[in-house]
Sequence to fold (286 residues):
Amino acid sequence: MRQRAGLAVLLALAIGAAACAGGERSATTSPSAAASAAATTASSIPTAAVAAGDAVYLSIGDSIQYGCCHDRTQSAGELFRAYLEQRLHRPVEWVTVAGNDTADTFIHGVSGAAPQMQRALEALAAFKREGRPVVAITMSIGGNDYVEVGERCGGSSPSCPQVFDDILARMKPELPVIYTAINQAKDEHMPLFLLTYYNASDCGQAGVEQSPTDVGQRVWNAAITDAAKPFGFFMVDLYAPFKGKACEYVEGVDPTYEGYRVIAGLYRAAYEALPSEYIEPFRAGN
Fold:
């Protein structure tokens, strides 16, 4: 999700500026400032230089996938890369094409820049051409669509429910377009782990499950999960593990170091649960 873009969603009312002890957490950055920060971050994300023949772990989507917003060596991507390298007994490089896209900008791009979907497809084609096995893909897309609800509704505007419905309706047909393109570009036994999202304001306060934020998050996650069903992706749910832990696992809308460690653990657990045909062909010596 976008760097410092505010709460994951503001649906029908403004969220009070309460601390972790109670109430919903408030945004600390204005949407315009967040958009500027996000654009700067996305343009400066380094991409790993992959040695010929080395295996690749590819991450696609939003800021969770490039390790916003601190030391990227402590992000879920780097932790998962290290695990894969040990698990497969071979060098593995982490390559990310992730940025701060909504589903719409993922497909169409922004301001004339190459869309992330195009860059992801080109990367997969290049790795195949160069004989570099992609041993895993992680992807999270749709979180910034949710952030956009809060940015556009501006708090307690009466238009918030309509904004929510409009952005959800825009995203729903775009997700299968993204999933189809990536699924067709990857090899059959290249595991793809698709994330659903946490409630970035759930610090365990009373009544949070009935809040518009939490209800909306579950609706959003259901849309992501439903769109993915035909593709055989491996789902990684962040909602349940982060429940009640946002003050520990989330800063703004992005994970803290502890949050990234939790996500990396979920990646590892999902990988260990894979059928052998998704692992054994990539092990050293096979």
User: Anything to note?
Assistant: The CA atoms of residues 171 and 212 lie 19 Å apart. The chain is about 45% helix and 10% strand. Residues 2-48 have pLDDT under 50 and may be disordered.
